[in-house]
Design brief:
The chain has about 100 residues and is mainly alpha-helical. The chain has one domain. It has 3 helices and no strands. It is flat, with a radius of gyration of 16 Å.
């Protein structure tokens, strides 16, 4: 297969995974009152997920060695999880955690 086609397939898979992850709370809201996301919650999570997916795709396209790809993508995912935890529950008590 063409190398560019493989990269585009990988990008489509990444974006599909992001959409599927955003569908989880949407479906859960239909069955449980415990999940109560607003449009703002979906927007913030979409920005975080799509941003992380795009950063990882950029890393996979630009970084040549497997070891460095894993390292840099791992750092990007770590930053994503720290931001997610801070926004969700405020583990560091910063102003972005909300009330």
């Amino acid at each position: 297969m063409n190398q560019l086609l493989l990269k585009n397939i990988r990008l489509c898979i990444l974006l599909s995974v992001v959409v599927l992850l955003l569908l989880i709370p949407l479906v859960a809201m239909q069955f449980s009152p415990d999940v109560n996301w607003s449009g703002f919650d979906f927007a913030v999570m979409a920005i975080l997920l799509f941003g992380t997916a795009m950063v990882c795709e950029f890393i996979l396209r630009k970084v040549k060695t497997f070891k460095n790809r894993v390292l840099v993508c791992g750092i990007a995912l770590f930053i994503f999880f720290v931001l997610w935890a801070e926004i969700a529950v405020g583990i560091f008590g910063s102003p972005i955690a909300g009330s």
